[in-house]
Design brief:
CATH architecture of the largest domain in chain A: 3-Layer(aba) Sandwich
Order of helices and strands of chain B: EHHEHHHEHEEEHEHEHHHH
Helix content of chain A: 25-40%
Largest interface: A-B, 50 and 49 residues
CATH topology of the largest domain in chain B: Rossmann fold
Largest sheet of chain B: 6 strands, parallel
CATH topology of the largest domain in chain A: Rossmann fold
Strand order of the largest sheet of chain A: 3-2-4-5-7-6-12
CATH class of the largest domain in chain A: Alpha Beta
CATH architecture of the largest domain in chain B: 3-Layer(aba) Sandwich
Radius of gyration of chain A: 19 Å
Radius of gyration of chain B: 23 Å
Oligomer: heterodimer
Number of strands of chain B: 8
Structural class of chain A: alpha/beta
Order of helices and strands of chain A: EHEHEHEHHEHEHEEEEHEEHEHEHH
Helix content of chain B: 40-55%
Structural class of chain B: alpha/beta
Number of domains of chain A: 2
Shape of chain B: globular
Largest sheet of chain A: 7 strands, mixed
CATH superfamily of the largest domain in chain A: Thiamin diphosphate (ThDP)-binding fold, Pyr/PP domains
Chain lengths: 325, 393
């Protein structure tokens, strides 16, 4: 075990992946010698050489197009998009190409060895173009897996699982937690399962569900609710696609209430998909309407970030609304 | 690592434009229409066996295209795309490669797949989306692919294969393979962002990839003078610092020679090459298109006299490697073969209902399995509405 922040954990996972297979290649803007603008790939070029860890030109569609070809060839392609806000030039290569590569060829070809890493989310005074949470766009695309870790331990285990999974995976990293989140992380190799939610705390009155950086928000709100005598079950979804319907519905059938919190805007966010499925599966168990505590349906603001975000106070109010319905 | 700029030119003290059309690009021509060879022209490496194989592939291509358009007109097939008049680009390109080289295409390069030996049955099964299609009946006709033949499955979105070819070739380089990637696309696709992304990355990342532009003059109805300015697509290669060749695309030997030379260079130098083959799309864009709405008969006639297949035939006749009787018999045989294959393939049943959810992921998710179970229960309830699958699972 070692004390690591979330960046160290990611760097450590990449190091293990590159060390175990000389066909593993890491690339993206500023990823090479500099080690990435957040330093997630720090030291990898020195250790594995310029052929396997390198800078690319500033062209997101090219990075993912290149990554698709590389993965189809049988190499392990780990591409970085510097900010999730800038992933959209690569949308076609992700949605029309990576996601459909295996299906459209009848399994003649696939890009299962592709992993796309990208920092996402707000809370760093990044305004509308350094704060977005675009997971729902990709969750609407069959063929992709979408994974978001909440802390260093989760980040390392989930990233190694993503790299080794035989499907294209988008791995969104909560950049607000890159250095803020620290914890004990095993130095050896381990994996955490994709497609499985994690029950962080058991409770009896309401299920609180979130992912990534939003986890510490709902944990804080749960603590406030506890002082009011409300027992919250806290669940980290971890995988947005495919998502763990069973763990969530089992929890809701037990507590009778569900609150979902996401950083992204409310309308057509992934919380909406969860709410629709849960009401279908748990209709007669629900004691109150499913609460969604999300960003507003606006671009991500700068000066008024505090008012915009789904913070612990908004979550706390929603918990009380649900319990007192 | 260097920040040194690439400076190649004199210093001037008054504004001095470089004209946007000033890049002069030579065009390689080896074979004349009458089958004779240009004086001083250097033939590609070719023997009678290869020459015969190339010609037979061209002939098969012409016949398959003719018969499948007819099948589409008869309502037997939903859609087809011919490569009439520009068959030499795909067949000649494939002939200049080794079998281990990857070919990535746009959609009008079935000739490359024919050269690699994709069977008539495989072509048919793909076009009729039946259960024997390697692609499991998921894509529209002509979206072929074969792992065995190193021919990447075609994807409808234009130009997406270009940066992918760069990545594929980079992987070949990292592994130290004796293999390159050849990537076909049209001059229209060269307007897409992926073209520029792919070429720039190939140059910077030093990938052994051959970019092969079929400049056939039209993107559906849009002629090339409404598609781009400058000296063709070849001039773009110069801008990206890529070795570039322009060839007569209706000259099978020019195409073959260019590809042979490009392959040797890409492999030896770990660097990309751009080939621009000048040709003309004599046929419609697809069976859903009618070119009489946007171009003249006179224009088409001019190019009909440039036919690449008769050009090669004339050369073969001059070598005494071929005769008219053989020629007639070959075309007749292919017509019979294709007609017979259509009759077989169109009767083969549709893929099994379980293939609705396979290959989305390596293993179907529990949600997908549940959705399939729902569909099956529904089909069983209303079997008459779902004749392809009802009673078959």
């Amino acid at each position: 075990m070692a004390q690591m922040n979330l960046l160290h954990a990611i760097n450590n996972a990449l190091d293990i992946a590159m060390n175990e297979n000389d066909r593993t290649v890491c690339f993206g803007e500023d990823v090479g010698h500099f080690g990435g603008v957040f330093r997630a790939t720090s030291g990898l070029q020195d250790k594995y050489g310029k052929t396997r860890c390198f800078n690319t030109p500033l062209v997101e569609q090219g990075i993912i197009g290149f990554a698709n070809g590389l993965a189809a060839q049988g190499s392990v392609a780990i591409a970085e998009i510097q900010f999730a806000d800038y992933i959209f030039p690569a949308f076609d290569q992700i949605v029309n190409e990576a996601a459909k590569f295996r299906y459209r060829s009848g399994n003649e070809f696939d890009v299962g060895k592709l992993t796309i890493r990208s920092p996402y989310g707000g809370g760093i005074a990044g305004g509308l173009y350094h704060s977005q949470s675009p997971e729902a766009y990709f969750a609407h695309t069959p063929g992709l897996k979408v994974v978001i870790p909440r802390n260093p331990y989760q980040a390392k285990g989930l990233l190694l699982a993503s790299i080794r999974d035989d499907n294209p995976v988008i791995f969104f990293e909560p950049k607000r937690l890159y250095r803020a989140s620290t914890g004990e992380v095993p130095t050896e190799d381990y994996q955490l399962p994709l497609g499985k939610a994690d029950i962080v705390q058991t409770g009896t009155d309401i299920t609180l569900l979130a992912w990534g950086a939003q986890m510490e928000i709902i944990e804080k709100a749960a603590q406030m609710a506890l002082n009011d005598g409300i027992s919250c079950e806290i669940v980290d979804l971890r995988s947005i696609l495919p998502w763990d319907v069973e763990t969530i519905t089992n929890s809701v059938m037990k507590t009778g209430r569900l609150l979902i919190s996401q950083e992204a805007p409310l309308t057509a966010g992934f919380a909406s998909e969860i709410a629709a499925s849960v009401q279908q599966e748990c209709f007669l168990h629900l004691e109150s309407p499913i609460e969604r505590v999300c960003g507003l349906d606006t671009p991500y603001p700068l000066a008024l970030e505090k008012e915009y975000v789904a913070d612990h106070l908004k979550v706390y109010e929603a918990i009380k609304r649900s319990v007192n319905f | 690592m260097s920040t040194e700029l690439y400076i190649n030119g004199p210093v001037v003290h008054t504004p001095t434009f470089i004209d946007g059309h000033s890049v002069e690009i030579p065009e390689l021509k080896i074979l004349k229409q009458d089958g004779s060879v240009y004086k001083d022209a250097e033939l590609p490496e070719i023997d009678q066996a290869l020459a015969t194989k190339i010609y037979q592939t061209l002939a098969f291509h012409r016949v398959l295209d003719e018969r499948m358009v007819a099948s589409q007109r008869q309502g037997r097939l939903s859609f087809y795309m011919t490569a009439l008049g520009e068959e030499a680009a795909s067949v000649g390109g494939a002939a200049g490669l080794e079998p281990q080289d990857m070919i990535m295409t746009q959609y009008r390069e079935q000739g490359a797949l024919m050269f690699r030996g994709f069977s008539l049955e495989n072509f048919m099964n793909q076009m009729f989306s039946n259960e024997k299609d390697l692609g499991k009946g998921r894509q529209m006709p002509i979206h072929y692919g074969s792992k065995e033949l190193n021919y990447m499955t075609i994807s409808s979105p234009l130009a997406t294969q270009i940066p992918q070819a760069t990545g594929y070739a980079y992987g070949q380089k990292v592994q130290g393979l004796d293999a390159v990637t050849l990537c076909y696309f049209g001059e229209g696709a060269a307007s897409e962002g992926d073209f520029h992304a792919g070429l720039n990355m190939a140059a910077v990342q030093e990938a052994p990839v051959i970019f092969f532009c079929r400049n056939n003059g039209y993107a559906i109805s849009t002629p090339s003078d409404e598609q781009f300015k400058g000296n063709g697509i070849a001039s773009r290669g110069v801008g990206y610092g890529i070795k570039t060749l322009r060839v007569d695309g209706n000259d099978i030997f020019a195409v073959l020679k260019a590809t042979q030379v490009a392959r040797a260079y890409a492999l030896k130098e770990n660097a990309p090459v751009l080939i621009e083959a000048m040709s003309y799309r004599l046929g419609a864009h697809s069976t859903s298109d009618d070119p009489s709405g946007y171009r003249t008969k006179e224009e088409e006639e001019k190019w009909q006299s440039n036919d690449p297949i008769s050009r090669m035939k004339n050369w073969l006749l001059a070598q005494n490697w071929w005769d008219e009787k053989q020629d007639k018999a070959l075309f007749e045989q292919y017509r019979e073969d294709v007609l017979a294959a259509v009759k077989v393939s169109e009767k083969i049943q549709k893929p099994h209902i379980d293939t609705l959810i396979t290959d989305v992921y390596d293993v179907p998710t529990t949600q997908l399995q549940a959705q399939l179970d729902d569909v099956k229960a529904h089909v069983n309830k209303y079997p008459d509405a779902y004749p392809f699958t009802a009673g078959k699972f």
